[in-house]
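S1.2 Input.
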Amino acid sequence: MKRFFRTAAIALTCALAVLALVACASQPTGEAAMFKAGTYTGSAAGKNGTVTVKTTFTATAIKSVEVIKHGETPGISDPAIARVPASIVKNQTLAVDVVSGVTLTSKAIIDAVADCVKQAGGSVDKLQTKAGAEKKTAGAAIEKSADVVIVGGGGAGLAAAVSAAQSGAKVVLIEKAPALGGNTIRAGGAYNAVDPDRQKAVKMTKPLLGDLKSFLGISEASVGEFGPTLKILKGQINAYLASGSDTLFDSVELHMMQTYFGGKRVDLKGNEIHGELELVRTLTTNSPKAMQWLESLGLPFKNDISTVLGALWPRTHGTTKPVGTGFIGTLSDNAAKLGVEIMLETKADELITQKGRVVGVKATKADGTKVTLKASRGVVMATGGFGANPEMRAKYNTYWPSMPLTMPTTNAPTATGDGIVMGEKVGANLVGMGFIQLMPSSHPVTGSLAGGLWGSAESQVFVNSQGKRFVNEYAERDVLASGALKQEKGLFYIICDQVTAGNPQPGAKNGWGDDIDTLIKNHDVYKADTLAGLEQQLKMPAGSLQAEIAKYNGYTDAGVDPEFGKRNFGPKLTQGPFYATPRSPSVHHTMGGIAIDTQARVLDAKGQAIPGFFAAGEVTGGIHAGNRLGGNAIADIMVFGRIAGASAAAAK
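S1.3 Output.
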């Protein structure tokens, strides 16, 4: 099977060519003219920017529709780009179904074609009320057997599929969306791992050194079962200080303790939570190994190290592919090579149990066809969290003062908690369900991570509408989100200069694949030669931003932030042009879920493993506790997805 990106593109080309011929062949005769024959170009706002289509009309029909330009995420948008134009042509209507999981892109295509209809003198109202797409008819029931059945085609599910297949198991994976990827393909692709070879190029700064030394003053008794880990870390720090090294220090134990402190939280009811020691140890110890595994599968990582927002330490790796596409593309390619059967648009409904063991899954395809999958060794649940389920978020939330149903999310629309519900019904214990992480730096309208411009966390500067900083930009994500929510309309701006923005050039794209010039044109990013120019565009008080950045630059020189305690700094902001990206918090990661052990076995309320049942990724809880470090999620899904696949393949 070819890469799913190329497959979608080829399918689109073929489908458009065939459907264009069908439209010509079946063009009505003797009908009154509906359009001014010709080819028109129309545009509409999509998920990540403008979607542009080219539509050709005869006097009485829509002859062809082609998406000619867009900034949507590859892999996610492919089904909509392939299906919606074809459906419009085939059914001669704008009243076509949107593609599940790609609603905004689907609507953008429909709206762009409507723009073309207007230009061609046609009636949008008539085309919107015409009979829509053909009705779907359920097929004959499907029954399959495999060694391992995996529910969910995001990063965790695909990692489990590849791992299980490498272990010799026959694997079937089902995914309810029309494409693979889940939340992973939408994520920034940040991967935390201790990596001495790459990290040796990073110099230890005075603020980072101070942060490191702070661990020496923490009592081992105060961190409970993490005490022995802290003791080892103290010995490592003292040895490092004695060595006189100026190279960045890192260790698995430091990663463990930062994950512990980053996740230790108390909810509104006074309940404290922190990561489970052995799960945290498994994550941090195996993260470098999982990274090497991915490289062995053909996924190249960059050599540079950064700090993704909320990561707390420079150990964040990125791939050479945009956002999360590299993980999904590499894993799906390898799954195909290993013979994994993938069933898209197949939603799991319930788990099949027999004498207390999970032995399969009942599912339904998009057309209503019933599917029964039997698993002789195990079922892996990898459906993600419930970030796209507003009612479920509101039901469980015990951390935030309010969780409005209208709050946007960075999540895929398919992240609705299905796996958690199915797991609970067969006795799985749920942990940490009340804690939900907000992404502070999301698009104010769409909630997406995309559509902006900034660099590593140490170089970011957050200001409110008055041009004033309000938080330590290097802090954890819940701290940042809480600070942002206190600003007017929950809105703030990430300020960069030409250097901290990554030295973008005309026609360049950001890390999400967005065209920066288009972002600026649409006011998703503001650009000015001077800070005074940014003040004017953002309607800030005259001189406010200039004074704030001058003060911040002074803190950068001193390596000390007396206002908010920022511990690590990037370059000063001095080189124009300057950029401002509007951001607001949105729901990002649901911290709680199904309880698992270090072998990714699902646990019941008594802490006993449920035979034949495994889980990995955001559907689980217990690892990150109340707040996840930025960059730990991709590491989590690869580490535990890999473990879950191997464990399921070995189950008896």
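S1.4 Remarks. The radius of gyration is 26 Å.
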